[in-house]
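To the team - NAP complex, inputs and output below.
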Amino acid sequence: MLNLSDKLAIVTGGSRGIGAAIALKLAHAGADVVVNYTASSSKAEEVASTVRNLGRRAFVVQCDVSDESSVSRMFDAVAEEFGKSADILVNNAGITKDMLVNRMSLEDYKAVLDVNLAGAFLCSKYAIKTMMRARSGSIVNISSVVGFTGNAGQANYCSAKAGIIGLTKSLAHEYAKRGIRVNAVAPGFIASDMTNDLSDTIKDKLVSQIPLGSMGSPDDIANAVLFLASPLSSYVTGETVHVNGGLLMS
Ligand code: NAP
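Output:
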C-alpha cells in the first residue's frame, strides 16, 4: 500500500528542511519527484541527486509559487519532462516575516499570505486541472500548529496557516467526487532553517511546553505526508494530521 512506484509527486519548497525530507520520503516509497525551489538551486540539485540514487526520476524546477505565470510554467515543464502530470502535490513552500502587528507592514503581511496561502491555491488549481482528467490525485497542504493557536509576532503567518485549513476543506469538498483527496499536515516545532534563527532561550522555552519533550524532525512531518499521499489514506479527505509532540491537544 505504500508503493508509490507509478506516481509522480511535486513538492513545493523541496530544496530544504521539511520539503527536502518529504521529497526523499516519497522517493523512498517509489515516487518520481519534482523538486521545486526559488533560490537554493544547489540544494534542490542535491535533493534531486539523492532521489536519483534511489533509482527514481527527479526534476528540479525553479518557480515562485506566489506568481501564477511561474506556476503555470512549472506545470507545463513537468508535463513535458514526464509526459504526464502529477499524481501527488505537496504544498510545502513557506516563508515567515515575523513582527508585532503594530509594526508589521501591509507588504509583509501580504507577502506571507502570497507564498504560504495563495501559493498553495495556485499550485492546487493547476494540479487539479489534470487530476480531474485522471479522476485521481492527492494534495497535501502544510499548515502549522500556530494556524490553530495563533502566535504573537506571526499574525501574517498564522493567517496563512489557518487559511490553509479552509482551503484544504474547500478543495476536499469540491473534488472528492472527482477522486481527488485533499488533506493537511500541521507541524509543531520542527528543526529546520525556519526555526534555526530562534535563540536557545526561546527554543528551550518552546521545548519545555512540548509533552514529548523535544522538537520534531522534518522526517516526522514527511511520515505524515507519506500516509496522506498514499492509498493507505484512501478514505481520508478534508482532514488535518497534527504532528507536534502533543503541543496541541483538543
Ligand atoms: P525552510 O527550511 O525555510 O524551507 C522553506 C522552503 O520553501 C525552501 O525550499 C524554499 O526554497 C521554499 N520557498 C520559499 N518561498 C518560496 C516560493 N515563493 N516559491 C517556491 N518555494 C519557496 O522551511 P521549513 O521549516 O522546511 O518549512 C516547510 C513548511 O513547513 C512551510 O510551509 C512552513 O511554514 C511549515 N512549517 C514549518 C514549521 C517548523 O517548525 N519548521 C512548523 C510548522 C509549519 P529556497 O530553498 O529556494 O529558498
